Amino acid sequence: MLIRHLSYFVTLARERHYGRAAEASNIAQPTLSAAIRKLEDDLQVHLVVRSHQYSGLTPDGERVLEWGQRILADYASLRAGLSGSHKGLTGTPRLGVIPAAMPAISFLTTRFSAANPAVSIEIQSMTSRAIQHGIDAFEIDGGLTYLDNEPLENVRRVPLYREQYVFITRRGNRHADRKAITWAEATRERLCLLSEDMQNRRILNKIAASAGLRIEAAVVSNSFLGVCSHLAQGDWSSIVPHTFSHVFGHPADLVTIGLVEPVESQSIGLVLSDRDPLSPIAGALMAIALKADLEKDFVADDRR
Questions:
Q1: What is the pLDDT of residues 38-87, one digit of tens each?
Q2: Pick from 3, 67, 66, 89: which is nearest to 279 by CA?
Q3: Rounded to the nearest 5 degrees, what angle is found at the Cα of 166, between the Cα atoms of 288 and 206?
Q4: Residue 85: CB partners within 8 Å, gap ≥ 6?
Q5: Helices 29-43/59-87 angle, 10° precision
Q6: Which end of the chain is more exposed for a tag (fewer CB within 10 A), N or C?
Q7: Helix or strand run (H / E) with residue 161
Q8: Cβ distance 93 to 112 under 8 Å?
Q9: Which phi and psi (to 5°) does residue 241 adopt?
Q10: Does residue 251 have a cis bond before it (omega within 30 degrees)?
Q11: How many whole angstroms separate alpha carbon 302 and alpha carbon 304?
């Protein structure tokens, strides 16, 4: 069995189409089909449902896919480890980051890049559920997500900071001059929030429910850019993570107000596949995360 045949099979399972899988693998479709048949001959099982078009994997194919993803990940780690022992860490770490943690990710990747200058970094905005799938399928090397609420399974966790919540509104709002606002008051405003398929919104709903409140949003978006667009253009308010100021600064026409009654926070951290040994890239990410003090970095950034 050749590693490249296994790679073609995993690509086919991901693309669910022979033509797209061949294109993604930079080979002709007949070459891909021949490689899949050779893999089936080597393993003496049918991997793909027999049809003129791709119709899914057989039960044996599903088992081979799970093992194949692990074998390919270990093979990539082996090559990276051998290369790194001679010329330092290379490659492209793939990180899935929940939208709420996007303002904080650069505090981690800046440290990582300084320690590993030959490495480029790929960041994808993903839901926590997508991060779980990506880690399970070895499609990403790690993620930034919530650690306490809806925790991921079969992962190593490195806490990085606690997310707090603030009310943000335009200067003309009736609460604009206040230092703090209650959740009861905030939920009566005209809100633009993340949609309920996002874990941040589910957390906000849970906090409000603990105070006997229900959040109604006039506008929802699956992107904080959509939320910020409404804050900039209309009579909208929102409830956002306190880290937002590290990306958008402190616009003159917007004010940020602390939320009380209740005061809540959630732990956000780095998650990595619970494999032993870790891949060289995952190990380097973990080493950086263990040394990082993002709370201190946030304070220093605010002072600047």
A1: 999 999 999 999 887 888 999 999 999 988 888 888 787 777 767 655 56
A2: 89
A3: 90
A4: none
A5: 100
A6: C
A7: strand 155-170
A8: yes
A9: -65, 150
A10: no
A11: 5
